[in-house]
Amino acid sequence: MTVSVQTIAERLCAGGVIPYLGPALLALCPDTAAPATPLALAEIITAKVSVLYKIRTRLTQAAQFIENFKHRKSLVSVMNEAFAMTSTPSALHCALAAMGAGLVVDSWYDDTFACALAQSRPQGGWAQLQGLSQAEHFGHWFAAYSADGALLDAVPASGALLYKPIGGHAPASNYLVSDSDFVEVMTEIDIQTPIPPAVQAWRRGRSFLFLGCRFDDQLTRSFARQIMKRSSDMHWAVLPDEPTRMEARFLEEQGITCIAMPLGGFAEALVDALQPTLAA
Q: For all residues of the chain together, what is the average pLDDT?
């Protein structure tokens, strides 16, 4: 099934589509200040803390080594350094932030989309939900923060939600990054425990639009599969490169239509299609 960018834009504006952002979206920013791939992040943290040679390019294993043989605080510190600088939001970041989407999923640690939300909604009116590491917050799977970064006792009943399932740099340095972080989540995610009820409620009957995502490893597929659970049966993913065999199987299983075009070209077309709504 094919669908036009205009149709996706109309469904976004109607609230029927949830943007699901991946690290490759940072490539659209005019100044990419944060690492935009797991490999790039692994290289940054292992340049600061020595790990075994054979795991230096494997993010979760390298993070686990640092946590085990240095300290969890050392791991958090190098992650904070890696994401200390915020990239200037791209036109697509800004358009998605300004259009009033009720839920956006951001599957990387950077603060770029939160920055776009702050710019488009200086009065607030949005909150952030972040996944928590059990190493630091045992028994608590996620935390809610207001637009100004204050910890909330409960998820607001109104306003937009930015959901960062593997945590994020701001406001509280929450990172799911080591092997043990993900093992803890994976043992519970099938029964949806780590996924906030507000996210579970919002996704019902809605479609997902994957931007800057790849599904070439089990973790990204598992998170996407569980976050999509009980949503619509119609989704889209912009994948400029040929999907791997496992990606193709995942896309078919989840009812995700592959949009085979460069991310920059799709972003430009989508921003143009959203302009009438943004200008209204």
A: 95
Write 273-277 long-range contacts (CB < 8 A, 24+). 273/5, 273/6, 273/8, 273/9, 273/10, 274/9, 274/12, 274/13, 274/95, 274/99, 277/9, 277/13, 277/99
Closest listed residue to residue 167, CA positions, set 183, 198, 186, 144? 144
- The structure tokens 């791991």 sit at 75
CB atoms closer than 10 angstroms to residue 232: 17
Q: Are 141 and 54 in contact (CB under 8 A)?
A: no
- pLDDT tens for 8-57 read 999 999 999 999 999 999 999 999 889 999 999 999 999 999 999 999 99
pLDDT in tens, 224-238: 999 999 999 999 999
- Separation between Cα atoms, residue 53 and residue 207, nearest integer Å: 42
Q: What is the DSSP-derived secondary structure letter of residue 152?
A: E
Output the six-digit token pair for 260.
């085979």
* Domain coordinates in residue numbering, the chain: 5-34+84-279, 38-82
Buried b (16+ CB within 10 A) or exposed e, 73-111: eebbbbbeebbeebbebbbbbbbbbbbbbebbbbbbbbb
User: Coil, strand or helix: which one is 257?
Assistant: strand
Report domain 5-34+84-279's class.
Answer: alpha beta
List residues bridging with 94 in a β-sheet: none
Coarse DSSP helix, strand, coil percentages of the chain, rounded to the nearest 5 percent: 45, 15, 40
Distance CA 127, CA 40 (A): 29
Q: Residue 15: count other Cβ atoms within 10 Å of its Cβ.
A: 14
Residue 158: predicted pLDDT: 84
Q: What is the pTM of this model?
A: 0.97
DSSP 109-124: S-SHHHHHHHHH-TT-
